[in-house]
Write a structure and sequence with these properties.
90 residues
């Protein structure tokens, strides 16, 4: 299970995903946040492929609100994919 750390400032937030090699979730979150006109910057980085953590940085008027919105949208997308996959293999 991944450990998630949060660092926040007024208009900036950093989320650190530790003890995981998953990169898809932070990438999907960033992609969904970049669809919002209120997000100035959203990016995910992994400094080295062997690192067991990745960082996601967000700059917005309300970064926490944007992250929560992106989590909901990403959850919806994964759910839709799961349904399509299940029906294709049924």
């Amino acid at each position: 299970m991944a450990t998630i750390e949060f660092e926040k400032d007024k208009n900036e937030a950093k989320v650190i995903f530790r003890e995981t090699d998953l990169e898809a979730i932070p990438r999907m979150l960033c992609e969904n946040m970049l669809d919002s006109k209120d997000v100035e910057f959203a990016a995910m980085r992994k400094k080295h492929p062997l690192d067991e953590f990745s960082e996601m940085e967000v700059k917005a008027k309300e970064p926490a609100k944007e992250i929560i919105s992106a989590v909901k949208e990403t959850k919806k997308q994964v759910s839709e994919f799961s349904k399509e996959f299940a029906s294709a293999w049924a």
